[in-house]
Structure formats: structure tokens, C-alpha cells
Amino acid sequence: MDTRWVAESGVIDLYVMMGPSPIDLFKQYSSLTGTTNLPPIFSLGYHQSRWNYNDEADVKQIHDNYELHDIPLDVVWLDIEHTDGKRYFTWDGGKFPTPHDMVAKLKSTGRKLVTIVDPHIKRDDNYHIYKELKDKDLFVKRDGKEFDGWCWPGSSSYPDFTRADMRSWWASKFNYEDYKGTSEDVYTWNDMNEPSVFNGPEITMHKDAVHADGWEHRDVHNLYGFYVHQATSEGLVQRSGGSLRPFVLSRAFYAGSQRHGAVWTGDNMGEWSHLKISIPMILSQSVTGITFTGADVGGFFRNPSAELVTRWYQTAAFTPFYRAHSHLDTRRREPWLLPEENRNIIRDAIITRYQLLPYWYTLFYVNEKEGIPPARPMWVEFPKDPNGFAEDEQFMLGPAILVRTVTEEGATGVNVNFAGDGYDVWYSADDFRRIPGGSKAYLPVTLASVPHFYRGGYIVPRKDRVRRSTTQMTDDPYTLIVALDSKGAAEGQLYIDDYKSFQYRQGHYLYRKFSFTNSVLTSSAIDSTTFRTKSILESVKIVGYSSKPTKVTLSSNGVNKELSFRYEEGTQLLTVRKPAVNMSDDWTMTISTQ
Amino acid sequence: MASLLLAFCVIVLPVFASEPIPRGVSRAKGSFYKAGVPFKCLDGSQTIPFDQINDDYCDCADGSDEPGTSACRNGRFYCVNKGYKPESIPSSRVSDGICDCCDGSDEYDQKVKCENTCIELGRSMREEMLAMKKLVEEGYRIRSEYAAQGKTAKLEKQEQLVSLGPKREVLGQTKDELMLKKEAAEQPEKAAKEVHEAWWKEQKAIREAEKEKAKAAEAFAQLDTNQDNLVSMAEMQARAEFDTNGDGTVSEEEVTILLTEAVDTMDLAQFTDTYWELIKKVYKPPVVEVQEPAPPAPTEAVPPPTEATTGDDEDDDSDFDEVNSTCIQDDFDEGDDDNEEAPPPPTEDNFMPAYPEETQVLMSVADAAREEYNKAEKEYNEVDREIQDIEKFLAQDLGPDDVFYPLRDQCYEYTDREYTYKFCPFEKATQKPKDGGTETSLGTFTKWEANGDDSYGSMKFEKGLHCWNGPDRSASVKFMCGTENKLANGAEPNRCEYTFEFTTPAACHSLPDDSESEQPDVEHVHTEL
Questions:
Q1: Rounded to 5 degrees, what are φ and ψ at B364?
Q2: Most buried among A203, A364, B166, B445, by the most CB within 10 A?
Q3: At what angle do helices A56-68 and A99-107 cross, to 10 degrees?
Q4: Which of A514, A503, A511, A180 is nearest to A370 (CA)?
């Protein structure tokens, strides 16, 4: 293979990672650039954004409609119009006179707010951020003067994020007392941090702008956005005294940006082709370590049809960062504004997302530990299957779920490549129908169809109850989906902690292993830890169990009890009712057939 | 643990009801849940033991077995809310740490302490209902006045229409008759005027020819320097203006080209008839001495200096139409002359003489006929316009009982942080920056739009000023019951799509119904163990 590399400046350091497996590669690459830190669980929920929710009444209306239509939601976002004339860290006092009350309203149902903080600083001596940076001489220079570029506020200067002292100053600005109106329920979005300079070459900063120690912008361009993300993320950690995990979304990113939070695929369009291509975009970012990523649901520009919006919600439910966002000039398209059928289907898609959050959260824990991305191209899980190498329409969510959502307009069916060989088994998520591995099938779909499949041999933890947001799910009980392989075995993990703090780094978490073999399901600790959850096991669904059991018993803490169950012959689904054992405990569930 | 929970949550003992009702079940559905009897899911899908109701595990596909827990994703929890109104909430909100029911019954497990706010809410609801009832009553009273006004106005207009119709017919006949009379008088007038004007045109042509001849003679005299009554080649060559190639001398060739042929000598007749036409373009008359009075008009062979005043159409034939029976003094520009002399008096040369007496008689007859006709036409048009206005008015949809009649020709304003919005029902909606600036159209009235059962729910305004990168501006004004006409709550949910609320007595459709089910639940008292 021949490749050619060109750099704007400097010398290229080349690292060769030897693999041999894709999983090995992720581990090797992340040893160089780091991994995605475990996000607070709310950030894996659903986000509702728009440029812009106009005022406090508008935010309340969004909140109240999600309540009215009983659709789960974790975060409402405010774009640039919430500020006083695009002066970040401020509020437009006319439209947002009482941000604390607004946040309290969101908090009352367990929800959060994200505000945008961009790195271009309006050149206005009456703006405290500008004045302080100017007085401290922390701006990027050009021709010996403060670099002056055009961005949202008009004439702007750009803090020199390559300076460590600048970054700590920036981080300090996120303290609750400095950034008025914020609290631990308010998180941050960094946009335009490439940086965007409307009147600059390629709409970014001039290559000869000068940073600290005389470095020209050409030398540090890729690092600039990275550093903005880093400084903001550190600010969010520091404001809580180091106790709470940050959440920062960034548009610019670079190798290692995963350490500082989420990114998204940028300003896309409400077109079918953009929905389709969002999958390979997200997978490309995932395999290069940037794993907490997603595309704007519905598309940023244009007015998508109700069908496209619906399909987008269905697909994005299986991508790491799940946010609907839209441009100022577009028509509103929040779920309740769509026809009832679409609204209900979107609600179902969002619910599916929330039900799988225990699995997502576990995948992100594994991601932090080992660098393996939650969203994986087929070849990651099936490196020997050449059908998966160029596959852009289906992908794996972790090792256990195959996703082939509909991304075609007016689709009546989808082609699915059920990877693997004769030993592999797949189960349709909607009816647990068994499909052999190493096969291709055309599956008919309706608008409500969200084709995804459980992989035989894996156990997926779910929380099947519907709540308003992740906050109310904390103590909710679990359901285990035990999808048996051709030998009747399966295995899976579950990670639990307090979902928001750094205490898991002090061993305050639960990491459980479930394994099913010879009709016995056991739960055991992977790590010895101190954390206890209030959550219990609500139900176990054993998929592909070939004969009707006579008895199911649970043994935990030396106590045995018999459990009731249901068995469906047709689908070979065995549902065990209410084991009601605490998820922190070791237990064994034995299924008898005579 | 599960059995403990069960004991805690299933036993519900309403004091006045004969049978216990499981938590979260309404009285209406209570009979489906019989203690000790196997429960059939309300969708009929299966039957489960009674002790599996509210046992925090979802057995029924329709969620009907878990009305009092969050186990089913599609269940409903019924709050009794004694003192307030009962409510049905999604059962996913049971035990989620958020107080949804005012009686706190959704958080029965005490994970959070919910204050019972039903009595207070009930009181304020009753106060609100009372206030609303008063408001609607008062609004409805005004609405009746509006309806009466609308009815009166329509009747009045209809009556007017009844009398205006025949009036217009009569005026129309008169107008038509006078039109014929006018045409009859204009025909001889036109013919007589044409005769006079043709004569004048001829006269003018003759005078022009004479003037030209005099100019030629004068030029001849100037050129004939030896006064032999002949202008010779040499005399022509003596004139500098004939040096067409500008070489300082006048060659024979130059003269020959000018005259289009070789000419030795010309007498006055030849000069005038044949060559003057060619020579006059180049010929320069002698400069008039300063102290001499202004030369008479005929001597001015080259017109440019006076073009500003005489170069217009005054001398054209078309001018005749405007010339009346007397000569019209052209409005000579006073500032045009350097000397302070008054403008020259009109001369016969420039103006057509008055029409002959008999023509003037015809003209005044025609003038009188025209005036009469114009008057009749004006009267007819006035009545016609009045009728059209009334018909337009009668065709307008003024709502049930014409209650929106008083809103016509009115405008209402609403000011927010940045703009003052103006709403003129049946006409337009506009926006204007608070600190001045131009008014922007948000659209003109196009139609009523329904809001629920109310087909007069809101007024739609469309085709306002186009938005850059967006649609034409439009506005929707929602009509709500109120005792006064007031515009409020402007918003722009989509770019350049505005919404407003307009309270008006005209939207107070009916008296509030007292016998609604939204009555506080006073009779149902229950206790939980």
C-alpha cells in the first residue's frame, strides 16, 4: 500500500500500531491519545436544541410539551441568541431575566440546560471577558496587534488557548459565581472553535497569526479547538470542586479530543443523503477515538419531511450523541409538531434509547477503560467477514446489537447482512425471531420499524420503564436480555455507579458479569468494589431457549426462591418474572426442564 | 421484600365505598378490580392472580394491572385529588421522586415528601372559575351588544342598498342621456375647430416661407459685397465660415461642395430658391451691435440661444388642441433674459388667432354639455361606489351573529421588548421597531382559521414583507374571550411567522357550563394503610 502525507508545517511523527485485531488497535491508539471519559449519564439521554429557543417562556414551552406528550428528555439547549449581543458568559436580560428560575424549572423534572460559549470574544471594553483578556494580554496577535476577526458578535478577538495560563483563566470563568445564572445543572457547548473567522482564509484564522512563544497559527491550528474544549471541560470540573463529571460539546476536534467530551458532525442538512452518511461519519470518528459523537437529528439546515425527521430519530437513537438541532431559518419540528403517527413513533424511538441506557453506559465505561468505541463498524466485531469492510448502512452497537435502521425515503424493506457464520445467531429486537448468522435477508419495514438485532451469545442489560429523564431512572429495576448462541450460552456485563460524579475512580462503582451456560444464569462481580445500588432485577428474558422449563429458582445470599415465568413456544422466549434480587448481589438462576 | 411491598400498596379502603379500589384506579374502573378475584387485563389479553395487581411488575400488555406503579410503560395512574379535580397521569410518573398529583398519591412510597396542595389548588381553581365565569358573562353581554351593532349595521346597509339601487339606475339613465347630448354638441364643435386650425396651419406656413425669403435676401445683400446684384465665387470665397476644412482659406472646391455644383455667380432668385437652403447651415449673419435694440424675431436665423424657451412643442401642430379661443401666452421664463425687459408681447406670428364667433358659440354649447355630463357621471359614480362598498361589507364574514362588526376599521397595538405590533382586524398586521423606523408588513388578512370547534378561532394574515432567506412574513391572531379588545403575547415561533393572542368580548361564545365534570371531588374520601 502506498500513502502520501503532507503537513502545513513541522515534521511528521509516524506511529505504527501492530494490532492485530481491531480491538487491539483501539487499545494501542488510545494509549497514545487517551480515551473518552465516562460521560455523566444524562448526556447519553436525548437532547433538544434549536437555534434558538427565544426566551424563558419558549424554554418552558419546550419543557411543558415534553411533559404533556410524555416523551423522555434530558437536556434543553440554548444557542447564541441567549447571550447579551453574543457576549458569551452573559444573558440577554430581556429574554432571559431569571436563568436560575428557568434552570430550576428544568431541574424540577430532572432535566439540564446547555448554553453555548464560543471562543470569539466581542471587542468591547465594557464586556468584562474582553476587558480582562485584553488587560492580561491573552489574545492571539497578528502584525504585533490583537488579532481582529469577524464572527457572530462582529469584530472579535481570540483568546490564545495554546497558553496554559489562558486556559486556567478561561476555566475559572465557569465558576458558578463568575458565570451568573449557572449551576451544576448547566453544561456547555463550544462552537466555532476551529476557530471560525468569517473574514479569514477558509473562514478560519490567518496562518500567520501569532500565538504564545511566537508559534504561528499554521503550527497550532488543529490544537486550537482541542484546547478550547479542554479548557472548558476543566472549567466544568473545577466549578464543582472536582467532584462532578463535565459535559462539553465541541465542533472542532483533534486526536485526543475524546478526553474532553463530545463532538458532533457539524452543520448538516435535512436531506436523506445526510441521514445516510451520518452513519459512516460517526463510525469514522468512533474508530479514531472520538467516540462520543452524533449528527444533528433532522438536519441543521432545510426543512425535512416528517418521514425524514422520524427516520432520523430512529437511527440516532443508536448513535452515541443524541441531539435534535435546527437552524434559525427552519420551521420548528419538535416531535409534537409532527403528525400523531410520527410523534408516537419518535416517542418510541426515544424510549428505545432510554431502555438501552444501561448497555450504553456500560459500553462507555469499557470505552474509558480500553478505548473500544460503543459504535463499531461491522469489521470490528467480524474482522473475518469481508462483507463488513465496506458496510456503511449497518453497524454494531457494542458487541451485542446489530443496527440497520431505515435511512431511505419511502422504504418498504431493508437488506441486512447477518454477519458471522453458521455458529452465529441473531434475534430480531421487536419479536425475538431467530435469524441464522452468515445470511443476508431483505426485511419488510413500516414507518414504525427500527430494525436492530440481538446477537446470540450476549446479555444486554436494559431499564424498560419509561421515565421523564435519566434522573428518575437511577433506582429503576433492570431487565436482562439473554440472547443465546447456538450452544445455548451467553455472556454480558453491566456497569453501574452514581451516574454523575468522579467517585467511580475511587472504586465507587459496580461492574457485574452475567453468564448463562447449561441453563444457569449467574451474576458475579468483575471488580471488587464498594458501591451498592438500590436497583433490583425486574425481569430476565432468555431468547432462543429451546424447551419449556418446569421450574426456575433463584439462589442469592443463601436463600432459594422459586420464580414464576412465561414461555412462548413460537419465539422460544422465556420470561422470568420478578427475580427482585439486588443488582449489587451475587446470585444464580437455575432453569429446570424436568 | 416483594411481598412486603405488596401488603403495603394494594390495600386501599375508601371510607364510603363498599369495595377497596387498588391504588391509581378511578372509581369508574373500580369494578374491574375485585378483591380476591383473578384480574382480567382490561384489553382481555390475559388473566392474572389478584395479588399481581400493583405488584410492581407489568403483566398486562395494556398496563392495566399496574395503575399504581411505574412498571408498565403505557399505564395510567388516577389521582383522586380530594378538594381539587381528579387527574389521570402516566403511571411512569408514579414513584419518580416528583410530586405530580396535588394529593401526593403518586409518590406514595415517600421517596419524596409531597405536600397536599389540593385544598389550596381547589380554592384557587374555584376562584379562577368564578372569575372566569364573571368574565365570560360580562364578555358575553358585550358580545350581545356587538351582535346587535352588527345586526343593525347590516340591516342599515341592506336598507341603503334597497334605496340606492333604483337611484343608481336613474342616475345611470341620466348619465347615458347626457353622454349622447354631449356627443351631439361635440361633433359640430370639432368640425368647426378643425376648419379654423387648418387655416391657421396654412397661414403659418406662408409666413414661415416669407420669413425665410427675407433672411435669404438679407444674406444675399451681405454676401454681395460689390453690390452688383450677383453673388460671385470670389464673394463666397471671401467668407471665412465657408472654410469647411478649417485650413484658413476658402477654396473654390469648398464652395462647390457646399453648393453641390460649380457656380460662378448667383442672382437673388437663384440664391433664394436654390442655394439658400444649402448656405444657411454655414452662413453667419453679421453680429448685431450692442447698443442697438434687440432685433426682431425674423432676423434670428440660428435658434439655439432661445431653444430653452421655444424649443418645446409650442409651435407644433399638436398644440392646436390646447389652444383655446384666445391666444395663450407661453409662460416665458422671466429669468431667461439677461436684461430686465418684460417678455415680448404675443405676436400674431406665434399664436393662433381666436376662433371665429360662430365656432366659439359651438364650443360654449359643447362645454356646457360636457359639464352637465361630468356632473351626472360623478353623481352616478358616487352612488355606484357606495353600493359596491355596501356589497363588499355585506359579503364580509363577520362571524356568527356578525359579532366581529365593531372590530372593523379598528387597530390594536401590542409592544414587547423590541417592537410595537399593530393588528387591524380584517385588514393587516404590522411590526415597527420601538425606537422608530419603518413599519414592516406581517401580512394582509386572508382568512379565518378554526381552533378546535371554533371556526373563528384565529385570523390569518399572509403575504407580508419577504424575509431574507425565509418565507413571506405571516401572522396568526388567536381570538380569546375577554371583556376588552386587547392584543397580547406576541411571539415568533418560526422565523417570520408571528403569533398573537387577542382577547375580545366577541370571542365569548357562551355562558360557562356549571355542570362540568371538572368539579372538585368532595364526596370521595379514601384512606390508605
A1: -70, -30
A2: A364
A3: 10
A4: A511
Evaluated on CA atoms A382, A385, A391, A394, the torsion sign reads negative
**pLDDT exceeds cutoff 90 at B525:** no
Instruction: List every span in chain A annotated with CATH 2.60.40.1180.
Output: 376-455, 475-593
Of chain A, the end-to-end C-alpha distance in Å amounts to 60
B377 and B129 Cβ atoms separated by less than 8 Å:
no
DSSP label at A203?
A: G
Q: Which chain A residues contact residue B469 at CB under 8 A?
A: 329
Extended strands (E) in A200-342 = 248-250, 262-264, 293-294, 322-324
Retrieve residue A485's grid coordinates. Answer: 448462541
> What DSSP character marks residue B240?
G
**What's the grid cell of residue A43?**
448526556
Which of A416-430, B27-41, B209-223, B347-361 has the weakest average pLDDT? B347-361
Does the CB of B1 have a partner CB in chain A at under 8 Å?
yes
ipTM: 0.93
CB-based contacts of B340, cutoff 8 Å, min separation 6: none
Looking up cell 425527521 gives A309
* pLDDT score for B290: 55
Give every strand in the sheet of A452-455, ordered side by side.
A375-376, A395-397, A401-403, A452-455, A425-428, A434-436
Are B57 and A538 in contact (CB < 8 Å)? yes
Q: Which CATH class is domain B401-524?
A: mainly beta
The second-level CATH assignment, the architecture, of A376-455 is Sandwich (2.60)
CB neighbour burial string for A102-111, b if at least 16 within 10 angstroms, e if fewer: bbebbbebbb
User: Taking CB atoms and an 8 Å cutoff, what residues of chain A touch B418?
Assistant: 94
Find the CB nearest B493 among A332, A466, A539: A332
Rounded Cα gap, residues B495 and A76, in angstroms? 20
Q: What is the pLDDT of residues A323-352, one digit of tens each?
A: 999 999 899 999 999 999 999 999 999 999
Is A241 at the interface with chain B, CB within 8 A?
A: no
Cell of A438: 452468515
The β-bridge relationship of strands A262-264 and A293-294 is parallel
Compare A515 and B392 and report the one with higher pLDDT.
A515
Which CATH topology does A33-119+163-372 take?
TIM Barrel (3.20.20)
SS3 assignment for B291-325: CCCCCCHHHCCCCHHHHHHHCCHHHCHHHHHCCCC
B353 at interface of A, judged by CB pairs closer than 8 A: no
CATH class of A475-593: mainly beta
DSSP string for A40-103: PGGGGSEEE--TT--SHHHHHHHHHHHHHTT----EEEE-GGGSBTTBTT---TTT-S-HHHHH
Phi-psi category of A63—alpha, beta or left, where left has phi over 0 and alpha has psi -120 to 50?
Answer: alpha
Q: Kindly state the cell numbers that stand for B407.
A: 372590530
Quick one: closest CA in B to A94, which residue? Answer: B417
Residue B141: strand, helix, or coil: helix
- Overall pTM > 0.90: no
Region(s) of chain A under CATH 3.20.20.80: 33-119+163-372
β partners of residue A48 = A76, A324
Q: State the Cα–Cα distance between residues B24 and B18, nearest whole angstrom.
A: 17
Number of Cβ within a 10 Å radius of residue A318: 26
Q: Which residues are within 8 A (CB) of B201 and not within 5 positions of it... i.e. 6 or more apart?
A: B317, B320
Q: Which of B485, B505, B479, B490 is nearest to B430 (CA)?
A: B490
Domain ranges of chain B: 2-116, 401-524
pLDDT higher than threshold 50 for residue B8: no
Over residues B127-173, the pLDDT tens digits come to: 999 999 999 999 999 999 999 999 999 999 999 999 999 999 999 99
Q: How confident is the model at residue B511 (pLDDT cuts 50, 70, 90)?
A: low
